[in-house]
Write a structure and sequence with these properties.
By secondary structure, the chain is mainly β. The chain folds into two domains: 125 residues, Sandwich (Jelly Rolls); 89 residues, Jelly Rolls, CATH 2.60.120. The protein is built from no helices and 22 strands. A seven-stranded mixed sheet has the order 1-20-17-22-15-13-14, with no helix packed on it. Strands 2-3-4-11-6-9-12 form a seven-stranded antiparallel sheet, with no helix packed on it. Strands 5-10-7-8 form a four-stranded antiparallel sheet, with no helix packed on it. Strand 18 and strand 19 form a beta hairpin. The two termini are 18 Å apart.
Length: 237
């Protein structure tokens, strides 16, 4: 088993006034050659957007982009004709493929919006762009890992063009579970949203990231009430 620990206070940081963003991996003006990615996981940004502000229309191509709101309402518009709002408890995915333009704005004028922006390197390029979002309310299970993303359109959650699986956990103090990786070529990056979690004997606090590879399974225990995200991705990148 191999591991890498990224403490919350070691992340890149950019404060633009309207946007306060923490980068787990190199992004924009933050560059660390030792933190370019974790396998196919290229970007993990922890973003807070001021009331009424946001990201104006801009392009992407050949990237799988996932947004997970943690607080507030995020307004999405794109050149595929989508105009919608994603909220805490939702997950959004966009396959940029041959090219897409989109904008993301805080839909409220009196409160912040907080969300994770995640980019996964795809295993297929120049695909037809696509957009999807779902509510996780029907998938969520207390004290048990539940799948929110996979490579299979018929599976639970949203899907992307990559051999990747995301699971989320909302555990009470003392609860534990073992996660079995789907592929021996994959590793898993754990990102703690709230609370304190022990992962294979390493204690993680809120916003810490922990990568594990060359492992068949990973054991978690909530040291206090905790919420976390597991991103299983191919490691050959």
């Amino acid at each position: 088993m191999k591991t890498i620990l990224h403490k919350a206070d070691s992340r890149g940081h950019a404060d633009h006034g309207w946007l306060n963003s923490y980068h787990s991996f190199s992004f924009a003006n933050y560059f660390d050659p030792n933190r370019m990615n974790f396998g196919a996981l290229r970007v993990l940004n922890d973003d807070t957007v001021a009331a009424g502000r946001g990201f104006g229309r801009h392009p992407h191509s050949n990237m799988e982009i996932i947004s997970i709101p943690l607080q507030g309402d995020l307004k999405h518009m794109d050149n595929m004709g989508n105009s919608t709002v994603i909220r805490e408890g939702d997950i959004q995915v966009m396959s940029a493929g041959t090219g897409v333009e989109h904008s993301e704005f805080n839909n409220n004028m009196d409160s912040l919006v907080k969300f994770l922006q995640i980019w996964i390197i795809p295993n297929k390029e120049n695909v037809q762009p696509r957009y999807d979002q779902i509510s996780l309310s029907d998938l969520k299970v207390k004290n048990k890992l539940y799948q929110v993303l996979s490579p299979n359109p018929k599976d639970q959650g949203v899907w992307i063009h990559q051999n990747a699986w995301f699971h989320m956990g909302d555990f009470d103090k003392g609860q534990s579970e073992t996660y079995a990786l789907k592929s021996e070529e994959n590793g898993a990056y754990i990102f703690v949203l709230e609370g304190e979690v022990s992962v294979e004997g390493t204690t993680l606090n809120a916003r810490d990231g922990f990568g594990i590879w060359d492992a068949d399974s990973i054991t978690f225990q909530a040291l206090n009430d905790a919420k976390f995200l597991i991103m299983e991705v191919p490691m050959e990148f």
